[in-house]
Specification:
Elements: H1 29-42, H2 44-50, H3 53-65, H4 76-82, H5 90-100, H6 108-111, H7 131-137, H8 143-158, H9 167-171, H10 181-206, H11 215-235, H12 239-242, H13 249-256
Helix pairs in contact: 5-10, 8-10, 10-11, 10-13
């Protein structure tokens, strides 16, 4: 029997059936971590904790170091974004983020911990430690040798010496721009990896109480770090494996040109070679 009246169908969703959150079957460890971290970062207490005097002071140092030729300062958001820049390795990114936040326990932090008060003072220099002292001024073998190696590589690349960076310039390294993309990228790698190595050398000596690293050890570890970055760049040019995440070969070539060992004898597509090394020393 036909009817001229239309049936009324309820199309609205029953809110009681809508469950909050993500489906467990589609959840991954990475997604879960990002969600938990986002919730934590949105909390007022977390934001207030990060907005400390030390953080503000370091942010100002970073922005001053990143000022352009006309004295223009980068936005705070740009500085924080730079700590996630893909030119910088994941470990070095976290190091820069912690550095700006003054999050590492050095100097005065140890003075309040019973039995560890001696760690507040640099044994060699006799002054209270700070990140600036550790990274750019300490007389213990480490920082001086590392920055000399960095300068040597920079001279191969540009023909110019690399002045030892200040703490502000280290924190601002991922915002720094040079004359071209390749030079800019090498600068960011050079500064971030060198500073991070100095920090690790200091921790091994102070926290793990190992003897200071020898000249040969410092050289070998710095060179190994540069070669790891080089080989990683070469591997990441594999479009078949990494798809859209792959790095363009042209960018890798521009980054490492002039600093490779026996560069004149390398094939044009040297990124496929397994024995390509940084040519310093």
């Amino acid at each position: 029997i036909r009817s001229n009246e239309c049936d009324l169908i309820e199309l609205r969703e029953d809110t009681a059936l809508l469950l909050p959150g993500a489906k467990l079957q589609s959840m991954t460890q990475s997604k879960a971590y990002k969600m938990i971290r986002q919730v934590k970062m949105n909390k007022r207490a977390y934001k207030e904790k990060l907005n400390r005097k030390a953080t503000k002071r370091n942010m100002e140092l970073t922005k001053q170091a990143a000022a352009d030729e006309k004295g223009g300062l980068p936005e705070t958001s740009r500085v924080w974004k730079s700590t996630k820049h893909k030119d910088v390795s994941r470990s070095a990114r976290f190091f820069l983020w912690m550095l700006i936040h003054d999050g590492y326990k050095v100097g005065r932090h140890w003075a309040k911990i019973e039995g560890h008060e001696h760690k507040a003072t640099c044994v060699r220099c006799g002054i209270t430690e700070s990140m600036e002292h550790i990274l750019t001024k300490c007389d213990v073998p480490g920082q001086e040798e590392v920055w000399e190696l960095a300068s040597e590589m920079w001279k191969l690349k540009t023909g110019e010496d690399l002045p030892k960076p200040t703490a502000g310039q280290i924190m601002a390294c991922a915002t720094t721009r040079k004359k071209d993309t390749g030079t800019t990228r090498l600068f960011r790698i050079l500064i971030s990896e060198s500073a991070y190595l100095i920090w690790r050398l200091r921790n091994e000596r102070v926290i793990q109480e190992n003897p200071p690293a020898s000249q040969d050890e410092i050289y070998n570890r710095w060179l190994r770090g540069m070669n790891i970055r080089l080989r990683l760049d070469c591997a990441l040019t594999n479009v078949g494996k990494y798809g859209k995440r792959a790095i363009k070969k042209d960018l890798v070539q521009k980054t490492w040109v002039k600093v490779l060992k026996n560069e004149v004898n390398l094939p044009r597509d040297w990124m496929r070679e397994t024995e390509v090394l940084v040519g310093i020393g």
